[in-house]
């Protein structure tokens, strides 16, 4: 099954996609919090290295991905007065 572009979705499908993105955002937020905990633990134990750098890189990637996923959807919801 081929993925449709957001602009081609019906109003109902767009609202369902909005719910999915909200769930993804919550999961991403929890994961970022967990990674921040790992970084803080590493700093408290005075161990700088991969245990600190890898979570920082993953936090950066997750934060940027979440931002780009929801921008277009929110614009379409406002345009169609669905939100």
Structural commentary:
Keywords: Membrane, Transmembrane, Transmembrane helix. The chain crosses the membrane at residues 21-41, 47-63. This is FUSC family protein. It comes from Chitinophaga caeni. The protein has 83 residues and is mainly alpha-helical. It has a domain at 33-83. Helix content is 77%, strand content 0%. It has 2 helices and no strands. The protein has helices at residues 11-44, 50-79. Helix 1 runs antiparallel to helix 2. The chain is elongated, with a radius of gyration of 17 Å. The model has no long low-confidence stretch (mean pLDDT 83).
* Helix content estimate: over 70%
Major beta sheet, specifics? Answer: none
**Number of β-strand runs:** 0
- How many helical stretches? 2
**Percent of residues in β-strands:** under 5%
User: Could you give the distance between the termini?
Assistant: 28 Å
Order of helices and strands: HH
Q: Sum up the overall morphology in one term.
A: elongated
* Weakly predicted, low-confidence segments: none
